[in-house]
From TrEMBL:
<keyword id="KW-0479">Metal-binding</keyword>
<feature type="domain" description="Cytochrome c">
    <location>
        <begin position="75"/>
        <end position="174"/>
    </location>
</feature>
<protein>
    <submittedName>
        <fullName>Cytochrome c552</fullName>
    </submittedName>
</protein>
<keyword id="KW-0813">Transport</keyword>
<keyword id="KW-0349">Heme</keyword>
<dbReference type="GO" id="GO:0009055">
    <property type="term" value="F:electron transfer activity"/>
</dbReference>
<dbReference type="InterPro" id="IPR002327">
    <property type="entry name" value="Cyt_c_1A/1B"/>
</dbReference>
<dbReference type="InterPro" id="IPR036909">
    <property type="entry name" value="Cyt_c-like_dom_sf"/>
</dbReference>
<keyword id="KW-0249">Electron transport</keyword>
<dbReference type="InterPro" id="IPR009056">
    <property type="entry name" value="Cyt_c-like_dom"/>
</dbReference>
<dbReference type="GO" id="GO:0020037">
    <property type="term" value="F:heme binding"/>
</dbReference>
<dbReference type="GO" id="GO:0046872">
    <property type="term" value="F:metal ion binding"/>
</dbReference>
<keyword id="KW-0408">Iron</keyword>
<dbReference type="Pfam" id="PF00034">
    <property type="entry name" value="Cytochrom_C"/>
</dbReference>
Amino acid sequence: MFDTMTMTKIVGGFCGALLVFLLGTWASSILYGTYGGPKAGENQAYVIDTGEEEESVAEAEEVVELPFAEVYAAADAGAGERLWRQCQACHKLEAGANGVGPYLHGIVDRPKHAADGYAYSDALLSQDGAWTPENISAFLENPREYAPGTKMAYRGMPDVEDRANLIAYLATYQ
């Protein structure tokens, strides 16, 4: 009843039909697609004011970031341990064991640029004081803004809760 040639013709017919449908879908998406249409206010004949922009601005203004001291008081060192993984590429937690960056054992409330054997950048050498949790948080948020010219090539950690958790984890190594 069915030989090899008949089965080959049936399978070929299904594959051909599938190819025609796929090409048809592709062609119709090119003809009728709306890729990269004009954005609101650009190249449009008119703009309908729906008031959504005002609501989104109002919602954005309502978001208030808690003071770092309050967030740090409720910080979770366990969550900070997971965040430490991105730091350990350059830093170590063993006292006196510098890597690409200075060791961070006892960093919380340690005087700035006090890691023995590490060559600090002029940006950090020009700063006085200690690495309080608030100072560490400001540095981690944006190292290049906190100390312009720093050797630390880290983009920063924008989330205040993440910074607080990481500092709480570092505080366990005193």
